[in-house]
């Protein structure tokens, strides 16, 4: 039996009928067209599905969409400006080769957005610790840490 | 994988949670932060027929200090525990739980009820002599943390009971040390040293089915008491060695000669 919910995703209002067993990740991808949010492990370990719910980072594979009723959700697709200008973190990832295949990138970016929102002047160690919940099989992480560090510095 | 279908209810009071669990007749499960339950459901190792979402239950998100102890409502998130200053040992332990995106959702009540032998909060609960408030059909009962944990992922809670809060005494001296392979991983071994009302406890997580309270008060002799089992993460000897070293560090940071 589906449940009616309303949520705001990247500033856009969605009125949806969702199945309780469907995760927020599933509903973002399949009912909101937000396929930018990736799903890797589906049990909380890889971080690819990280989004912000009411400004806090969550694993969208570990939250059911019914639980996001009346919440504000921010995904990677809301990062760029109206005119297509990249978010400073997106630009930094491009500049520092912070991605190769890009599968982990949506989660990396949303984790980094929260880091920059909550820590005023993160050092490299803090960045490494904070990003350690997101797994990347391509880059070796150095470019990712460089990118976050650059974005933090150039604020 | 995807979870099997279930019926979803979202009560707003403890009484309604208990009623929903009773109605589900053993087929219901409480959903708190979901950081342990949802993975288990996604792997189809659990298929509850009814999920009772307690996130909107009122009055369970408070953190209050009184009389030398800190009362933590069942819905207090690990992130809040990590940021509070009333109970520094709890804050230190909470900072070691997973990653930020886990701590924003995971709850104190969920961690205690889940009873993972590698989890931090059960070790802190036993080390400080915490009291768990349990709501059931016959009203509230109070359980000492060491009587709550019965085995790996097993407690003495009935399926239709709910943890509503935990009282953690604030220790006069304390130390915390754990070893994990990677930042944010579950620890292989956690040692918590806590002195409450002049009583010093050394409690070890990850070396048995439940947090183990040591009889000895020194790191070296502690090793002889432990009977860890080896697994792919580490052999029995390795875990014993880790426990001794973590005990040494925890005692040192508590300012105690071990
Ligand atoms: C990637 C990852 C890393 C993690 N790392 C760590 C770690 O290093 N250390 C650690 O300790 N934990 C770790 N966790 C688990 C996390 O701490 C969980 O938050 C915690 O174990 C369970 O809390 P929860 O609120 O999410 O509970 P849920 O997942 O919602 O529930 C867990 C179980 O407890 C029951 N339950 C929940 N609340 C209550 C209640 N109030 N009364 C009775 N029963 C209840 C549920 O029915 C279920 O059986 C990790 C999780 C993930 C996904
Ligand atoms: S898909 Fe959610 S953490 Fe891996
Ligand atoms: S860029 Fe490929 S997984 Fe990170």
Outline of the structure:
The complex is a heterodimer of chains A (155) and B (258). Helices cover 32% and strands 16% of the residues of chain A. With 155 residues, chain A is an alpha+beta fold.
Can you write the helix and strand succession of chain B as a string? EHEHEEEHHHHHEEHEEEEEEEHH
Order of helices and strands of chain A: EEHEEEHHHH
Tell me the name of the CATH class of the largest domain in chain B.
Answer: Alpha Beta
Poorly predicted regions of chain B:
none
Tally of contiguous helical segments of chain A: 5
Determine the structural class of chain B based on helices, strands and strand pairing.
alpha+beta
Terminal-residue CA separation of chain A: 47 Å
CATH architecture of the largest domain in chain A: Roll
- Most extensive chain-chain interface: A-B, 31 and 30 residues
Name the structural class of chain A.
Answer: alpha+beta
Question: Can you give the mean pLDDT of chain B?
Answer: 96
Number of helices of chain B: 10
User: Which term fits the overall shape of chain B?
Assistant: globular
> Which oligomerization state do the chains in this entry correspond to?
heterodimer
